[in-house]
Specification:
mainly alpha
Length: 132
């Protein structure tokens, strides 16, 4: 019979597997492939944001609830930090703009045809996935 600690660990692993599978083992934001080792669990509404906006959320909202947890790669999870999805979208747009303004190397790569930027809207993997 499994000990209490073993059962808790089994539940933690099962929860992480479920989160990983939400978007076909891909980062909810950039869509890169993930596995159990590379999985970061992102709070869509961060714990910090929750404290600020909990009055605006449904009464049954759980900040650590499975619906608020998305699979993310380390880069996206760290970049999004405790921001909202819209904040992260804006941050990526600003990054795209600042790269063009600040980096001569980026400009050279673009002129040589090695790099292109698009003005398409930033649509995250989970949005494409949910909209089929």
């Amino acid at each position: 019979m499994a000990t209490y600690k073993e059962r808790i660990e089994e539940q933690r692993i099962a929860t992480r597997r479920y989160i990983l599978s939400k978007f076909d083992d891909r980062c909810a934001y950039c869509g890169c492939e993930l596995d159990m080792d590379s999985l970061n669990v992102d709070h869509v509404v961060s714990k910090q944001a929750y404290r600020r906006i909990k009055e605006d959320l449904p009464s049954n909202f759980e900040v650590d609830g499975i619906d608020n947890l998305f699979p993310a790669c380390q880069s996206c999870n760290c970049s999004k930090c405790d921001g909202s999805v819209e904040w992260y979208r804006d941050k990526i747009h600003e990054l795209r703009t600042s790269l063009l303004d600040l980096s001569p190397k980026v400009k050279i790569a673009m002129r040589l045809g090695y790099l292109t930027f698009s003005n398409k809207p930033i649509i995250f993997h989970f949005e494409k996935y949910q909209n089929g």
